[in-house]
Amino acid sequence: MDSFKVTYHPKESWASLGDLLFVDHPVGTGWSYGTHSPTTLEDIGAEFVTFLEAFYEEFPARKSQELVLTGESFAGKYLSFTGQAILDKNRQSNADSQINFKSLILSNPLVDVETERMHQHELGYAIGLYDDGQSAQVETLRRHCEESISDPDVSTSSAETNCKNIENYISNLAGGVNQMDARYFKSDNMPNDVFQDMYKYSDKVSEIKSALHITKKQHFSKTNSTVSDRITDRLDNTAYVFSDLLSQGIKILINIG
Question: Which pTM does this prediction carry?
Fold first, then answer.
């Protein structure tokens, strides 16, 4: 008997406010398939605009509807560039070809990697995951992270590893506390685990894939290091893109937690 159940709550759904479209992007994440070609955040934005143009050509009645882009984590980078790409396209297009992009909704967005990595440990200290006895070691790891990011001779992947060591050290000190949600430990089942497991272990995966017209043979991929490793500017500070979007009237809602 399949233990994975999906229930629909129309009164609590985003679908009660408008049409909801999920896009596995960039290519290689989620159920998407094909060859991943973007190597910069600008490339990713341009690729998404190409998708939107194809979507509106197929469904022209949707073009007049307001477009709200939503995402979490790394979406703070690629969706901000996507928004910028849409605005750039609109400036070069006539009135009939405009994309009605108005706002961004981002959850825990990654924006300025260096600043964020330099201060994440402060939360661990504040909630008691470590104390003054370990502060010197945390500071050593933090300094190593900072030096790695600014050193042109250190690869992006190595810098990411050095910065991740801060969280790993604190997590291990606290007995394996979950780095995404301090209410849980590595041994606990996270609330979102059931959704990931559904794509892997449910005996109805074939039905799900058929209903969604999915032809990818591999399992669902929540993250894909092959995709991220090819994005050369993934650690760059993208705060200036947010400033540009805001200056052009785009509304941005950010939630943390």
Answer: 0.82
Candidates 101, 55, 61; CA nearest to 79 is 101
Total number of residues shown for the chain: 257
Long-range contacts of the stretch 163-168 (C-beta < 8 A, 24+)? 163/113, 163/117, 165/141, 166/117, 166/120, 166/121, 166/138, 166/141, 166/142, 167/120, 167/121, 167/124
Bond from prior residue into 152 cis (ω within 30 degrees of 0): no
- Angstrom CA distances, 173 to 120, 123, 131, 176, 185, stand at 15, 14, 10, 7, 12
> Comparing C-alpha atoms, which of 65, 88, 102, 90 is closest to residue 249?
102
Q: Name the token pair of 194.
A: 């059931």
Average pLDDT, the chain: 86
Dist. CA 13–CA 238, nearest whole Å? 31
Strand-pair category, 67-72 with 101-107: parallel
98-135 pLDDT, tens digit each: 999 999 999 999 999 888 888 989 999 999 999 999 99
- pLDDT tens-digit profile of 171-222? 999 999 888 788 888 777 666 666 667 777 777 778 877 887 887 776 666 6
Q: Which of 88, 52, 40 is nearest to 230 (CA)?
A: 40
User: Are 68 and 104 contacting, i.e. CB atoms less than 8 angstroms apart?
Assistant: yes
In this structure, are residues 70 and 105 in contact, taking their beta carbons and an 8 Å threshold? yes
3-state secondary structure (DSSP) of residue 253: strand
CATH of domain 10-111+202-255: 3.40.50.1820
